Amino acid sequence: MKFRGYCLLAILFASINTFAQKQDLTIENIYAKGEFSTKGFGPARWLADGSGYTTLEPSIKTNDRDIIKYNPETGERLILVSASSLVPKGEEKPLSITDYTWSDDGEKLLIFTNTRRVWRYHTRGDYWILNLKTEKLQQIGKKLKATTLQFAKFSPNSKKVAFVSEQNIYVEDLDSENTTSLTSDGADNIVNGTFDWVYEEELNLRDGIRWSPDSKKIAYWQMDTEGIGTFYMVNNIDSVYPKLIPIPYPKVGTTNSASKIGVVNIENKKTIWMDVPGDPRDHYLARMDWAHSSNEVIIQQLNRKQNTNKVYFGDERTGSTKIIHTEKVDTWLDVYDDLTWLNDGKSFTWRSDQSGWLHLYQVSRDGQEIKPITQGDFEIVNLLTIDEKGGWIYYIAAPNTPTERYLFRSKINGKGEPQRLSPTNKTGHHSYIISLDGKYAIHTFSNSATPPQIDVVSLPDHKVLRVLEDNSELKTKIVNTNIPQKEFFKLDITDKLTFDGWMIKPLDFDASKKYPVLFYIYGEPAGSTVQNSYSRDLWHEFLAQQGYIVISIDNRGTNVPRGQEWRKSVYKKIGIIATEDQAAAAEKILEWDFVDPDRIGIWGWSGGGSMTLNCMFKYPGIYKTGIAVAFISHQKIYDTIYQERYMDEPKNNKEGYEQGSPITHARNLEGNLLLIHGSGDDNCHYQSCEMLVDELIKHNKYFSMIEYPMRSHGIYERENTSVHLRMSMFEYLKQNLPAGGK
């Protein structure tokens, strides 16, 4: 007995010693050193002929990257393009590849390099062409201003490249290297081939040029921003005198850009404009492409309320248009990138929630026949590819599991049951880049505890052919670090209303004690916080390590595949229903024995910052401490497309705008509140913070505030910003929401 007791004691001490040897999470090792960064793969491209995929890998001889081709079955490795072949004449170093594209004939490579950020993404830079047969390396648009080219793309016949530069559209002949301007009016208010701020942000439109299948024409958007209100950001830190930065930004209820679509002939440079009915400033041309023909374009037009989507064919020869399909609802419509042509252009795919669930349909070219491809009480998250020869459509869905994502396929003819292809023993998020013939895929799997695992699989058997990246170094790092685990749960609010949530407890959690709870919130229709994917929620895991319970809940209206009723119940009530749901969830959680009702905090970013304010102001009895980052204090000062989509215009919903806006309820503040905003935020303007500050002062409410000069919506630019931001938040929590069990 003594011997056995000694062994148990030794094991206990060994266990404690092992725990003690593990590294703790720190703000420095997360945000300054990036010790927990994941490795990805690519960018990867499947070759059109189905012979394999290509990717970028470090050269054996240098730190530069070669383009490598792999055979998916055998793993045979071939250097298609060596870094040494990408050295421009007169230079010593090869081009640094940000992205690359193959021509349709497979003989040329288009390289995007030396990139610059435009709003959120790097969409501007330089482009080069490498001819694989002749090994000739040539710069595109070399006579134009450097780093001004955008969206360069090969013509279908691989003989030309079209691109945008400084708001005009150009085409370059690859043999003669002659560059021709197809538009010349782009300047000041006229924008050709790309978009204004709000189209890019809210309709996800950046690239505004489309080659015709016959390589003779280019269809494009033109924006006229005249009349849009100008928002000015002020840069006070980079010069002795402040610099004003103007942004044409349409705020709720104000004038939008006028948009139109034209088709320009490459030979005569003449543009034919599509005659799309309706006021161009009160409608959005949300999608456009060639209609499986070089004679017609297909255009999706949303009205300003965004509850009607009219699909037009436009004749490139005359500009005349005709409606072929209309979808109208009482709430709002989202635009999806799922329009794919079938049956040699006789029909196209369409995604709609007209049944109450988002499903795929097949619409005949004349719009007269609409047939369901998928049906049932589940939703299509996104369409991946179509194997028309085999008769299959591949898509991501999550039946009964809104926190997860899996690969399914269904028959194009709508017959039979959906087939799940993702393995049943891997619960979490699965994503795929599928080859054009549907036989292979680059597959990424993760869940909250598993870093991304990337492999090549065959389809439909989902057999792993080879592992591309398993993030083994990161896994070892995680094993050797004291990281609390995320637990998923469901919270019943009523008999008919259940919320998904997750919780992270301290490592030394003791159910007999009471702990502070910090709610992490987003709550708006643009996203979801409760997903079983590997975000490696290190910030929240760090806070749990310090002695906080961190919880997140998805309220009604969040963007999860739970059906139309769930998503659209918040119509005209943004900031109202979500706040009620979050408070109801918090009340339930306050009943848990280990929760301290006197130490309840909440924090969020962007829409989550707005929700934090609404919760603090509307339910001061629940939430004692809040941190609101990069928020909107009044919905009337956000942009037209996002806010009007969910709330209609203020003139039609005055009560909703007032009651859903935090500033309306600022007088009710009782707890501790920290406001954080970047003065260079082009999305949720710093104005929003100043307006709220003014209102809080008016009502003699005390708060704390940090401005990050000339940081954008992500508040990460410039030296030490991320570390300072998180340290400031942590110090505020320590002072106002004491950690640890009591």
Explain what you see.
The chain is an alpha+beta fold and 742 residues long. The chain folds into four domains: 38-181, 7 Propeller (Methylamine Dehydrogenase, Chain H), CATH 2.130.10.10; 182-335, Methanol Dehydrogenase, Chain A (8 Propeller), CATH 2.140.10.30; 342-447 and 450-474, Neuraminidase (6 Propeller); 485-736, Rossmann fold. It contains twelve helices and 45 strands. It has an eight-stranded mixed beta sheet, sandwiched between helices. Strands 14, 15, 16, 19 and 20 form a five-stranded antiparallel beta sheet that branches. The longest helix has 20 residues, at 2-21. The chain is globular and about 75 Å long. The chain starts with a helix and ends in a 6-residue tail after the last helix.
List the domain count as a whole number: 4
CATH class identity of the largest domain:
Alpha Beta
> How much is the average pLDDT?
94
Quaternary state reads: single chain
Task: Report how far apart the termini are.
Answer: 37 Å
Q: Architecture of the largest domain, according to CATH?
A: 3-Layer(aba) Sandwich
Strand order of the largest sheet: 38-39-41-40-42-43-44-45
CATH topology of the largest domain: Rossmann fold
Rg measurement, Å: 27 Å
What percent of residues adopt helix (DSSP H or I)? 10-25%
Query: CATH H level of the largest domain: which superfamily?
Result: Alpha/Beta hydrolase fold, catalytic domain
Largest sheet descriptor? 8 strands, mixed
Count of discrete alpha- or pi-helical segments spanning 4 or more residues: 12
Approximate shape: globular
Structural class: alpha+beta
> What is the β-strand count?
45
